[in-house]
Specification:
single chain; 456 residues; Aspartate Aminotransferase, domain 1; 7-stranded mixed β-sheet; 12 strands; 12% strand
């Protein structure tokens, strides 16, 4: 297949070239594209993800609409029989506007990939049907049978299960789990020549441990190991690729979608990796087929422009609530608080003005207390909803140990620092800040009242 890892700054070509012949229009396009790249002046504040998104090319609709058209076709026609053979040999491909089949490449999905690459500051990106599809495909592309992964102990439960159970059984790929804050431990567990990937979350789910991305990348790269970072908890806040990571994965279902109505994922990284994952013979994405629907890609492309605004409000409210909860005497975990062990580290790596993340945790110590708190918050005062996931405009709450981390056994949860009563809150922005805070206080008061012994 011809390379499909388009540079996000490529000029827009709206004409559809369905013939395989070379013509003046294509030569003019190639010359213009080359001139643009050769003479490009770096935009100001290029490190800001919102600025990078704004500088990505804008796809227009087929008839000049300000929104791009949705290419909903599963298969694509050609004008000349010889063209199809040239497409399957890789001579003609998406980089020249030739498409075969939407499991391979789809114009709408490729456009979302360009935007994700701009967001994360990578050469290329490919979008998938789910976050787990992105994670599993990357690991299978980078690791062969007998391969080894070093990963953080504290990961999303599905990722932990993939590394602990599925990959060893199905693929003979093993994982050593480490305390990601213990850099000597990380260094010690990397086996040169065997370890292929160092995998961690930029901000861990659910304990909100912040990874020292530059230092971990330095350790891994010294030993020839590829660094894969899940940045689902911190889009806009952190840019792992700009800090040295090789690959960034996302569950787009969360903050990037923002509507709790879409399941999607993304792999952002070097063009060479993304193209290898789409290889007809060896590509994990191509052959496993976790294809994103173009209608989903269109929806997400329309939401990315206001991601920065949404993230800033999620983060602003999370900091206010975390500060106030702590003053009430609750055991709060939030990296925006100065007493969080990773506060200074996050400040040193974070993109300016995006805050410290939209997730906070309240440790109620026991599952029973956690459930009582959430019950009051949802059913008594409407502060939030008891539901997994994050990034929604309503606050979402779950007791992590018995929900999103339930794939881990008791010992693994203890090593990861997941308390039985840890309530993870994805802070929303619906309603006014003071309105929602009043609802929180009322729920807490009712919970405390119900715990008092009743008079006889």
């Amino acid at each position: 297949m011809a390379d499909a890892a388009f540079n996000s700054d490529a000029v827009n070509m709206s004409s559809k070239k369905r013939s395989g012949s070379s013509d003046d229009q294509w030569e003019q396009f190639s010359a213009a594209k080359k001139h643009q790249v050769m003479n490009k002046t770096p935009p100001p504040h290029a490190e800001d993800p919102a600025a990078a998104l704004a500088n990505a090319r804008h796809e227009f609709g087929e008839h000049g609409g300000v929104n791009m058209s949705i290419e909903a076709s599963a298969t694509f026609t050609v004008m000349e029989p010889e063209t199809m053979r040239r497409m399957f040999t890789g001579e003609l491909g998406p980089d020249r506007d030739f498409f075969i089949y939407s499991r391979h490449f789809n114009p709408t999905v490729l456009n979302l990939g360009r935007l994700m690459a701009a967001l994360e500051g990578t050469e290329a990106a490919y979008c998938t049907a789910s976050g787990m599809a992105a994670i599993s495909s990357v690991l299978l592309q980078l690791c062969s049978s007998g391969g080894h992964v070093v990963a953080s102990r504290t990961l999303y439960g599905g990722t932990h299960a993939l590394l602990t159970h599925f990959l060893p059984r199905a693929c003979n790929i093993t994982t050593t789990f480490v305390d990601i804050r213990d850099h000597e431990m990380v260094r010690r567990e990397i086996v040169e020549g065997r370890t292929k990937v160092l995998y961690f979350e930029s901000v861990s789910n659910p304990t909100l441990t912040v990874a020292n991305v530059p230092e971990l990348c330095r350790i891994a790269h010294e030993k020839g190991v590829t660094v894969v970072v899940d940045n689902t908890f911190a889009p806009m806040v952190l840019s792992p690729a700009r800090l040295g990571a090789d690959v960034v994965v996302h569950s787009i279902s969360k903050y990037i979608s923002g509507g709790a109505d879409i399941i999607a994922g993304a792999v952002c990284g070097p063009a060479s990796l993304v193209n290898s994952m789409m290889d007809l013979h060896q590509g994990a994405l191509m052959l496993l087929g976790p294809t994103m629907n173009p209608k989903v890609a269109f929806e997400l492309s329309e939401r990315l422009p206001h991601l920065a605004l949404r993230m800033k409000e999620h983060c602003r409210r999370a900091l206010v609530y975390a500060t106030r909860m702590k003053k009430l005497g609750l055991k709060v975990v939030y990296p925006g608080l100065e007493d969080h062990p990773d506060h200074a580290l996050l400040e040193s790596m974070a993109n300016k003005d995006y805050g410290y993340g939209g997730i906070l945790c309240v440790d109620m110590e026991t599952e029973e207390k956690a459930n009582r708190l959430m019950n009051h918050l949802q059913n008594s005062t409407q502060f939030g909803l008891m539901a997994v996931s994050l990034g929604y405009y309503e606050t979402l709450m779950s007791c992590s140990g018995s929900s999103t981390s339930s794939e881990m056994n008791a010992e693994e949860k203890e090593l990861a620092g997941i308390s039985p009563g840890l309530v993870r809150m994805s802070i929303g922005y619906n309603g006014s800040l003071e309105q929602k805070w009043s609802q929180f206080e009322k729920a807490l008061s009712r919970m405390q009242d119900s715990s008092l012994p009743k008079k006889i």
